[in-house]
Amino acid sequence: MKRLALTTFYSVVLSSLLLSACGSAANSDKQPNETAEVHNAEHGQHQTESGDLQEKTASLSVLPSFLDGASATVQTAYKTAATVTDILPYIPCYCGCGESAGHKSNLNCFIAEQNDDGSVVWDDHGTRCGVCIEIAVTTAAMKANGVEAERIRQIIDETYKEGYAKPTLTELPPAS
Fold first, then answer.
1. Are residues 97 and 109 in contact, defined by beta-carbon separation less than 8 angstroms?
2. CA 76, 108, 80: angle at the middle one, nearest 5?
3. Is pTM, for the whole model, over 0.85?
4. pLDDT at residue 51 in the model
5. At 40, is the pLDDT very low, low, confident or very high (cuts 50, 70, 90)?
6. In what order do the strands lie in the sheet containing 120-123?
């Protein structure tokens, strides 16, 4: 249990140092330029009403092109989120994306939908949100250490209950 606590602590501290909180307010006044619009059409991307960029790829192992210029930390967060798609639907996000973007869980900060054919619609929200990344990375670290989904949810809820935005309206994980 001490190893789990240290892993969780270091994941949160590292993420906090490397990333800032969600940048949706800071980025809300930016207008897309013609180059970005061509790039978007070229890669099958579209923008949601909340301003998030989404892109469909063939599978979870094919990352979206909007990550091409992203930091290694952000790219790793997306790869990590793709490995815990079984738990993230049950983990709320505390950045305010439930109200601003209609997200239902932390998974939606990275992945909007997974289709029956294996294709994935990625969401760029997590590229500019330290809270989203912290939650996903911490969840993955706890899962890797054998912590049950119910306990992960309790720890995330306890960690982010004060000083953060309202959580997404996320269903509880099934009892194990």
1. yes
2. 20
3. no
4. 84
5. low
6. 45-47, 53-57, 120-123, 111-114
| pLDDT for 32 | 39
Interhelix angle 72-83/130-144, rounded to 10 degrees, is 50
Write out the two tokens for 175.
């009892």
| Amino acid, res. 163 | G
Output the CA angle 109-103-100, nearest 5 degrees: 100
Q: Kindly state the helix (H) or strand (E) to which residue 143 belongs, with its residue range.
A: helix 130-144
Given the structure tokens 């109200």, which residue do they identify?
99
**CA quadruple 173, 152, 143, 84: dihedral sign:** positive
- Cβ atoms 131, 22 nearer than 8 A: yes
Query: Strands 53-57, 120-123: parallel, antiparallel or unpaired by DSSP?
Result: antiparallel
Q: Tell me the average pLDDT across 67-95.
A: 97
Nearest alpha-carbon partner for 108 in 18, 90, 118, 117: 90
Beta strand 53-57 with 111-114 is: unpaired
Which residue carries 């670290």 as its tokens? 141
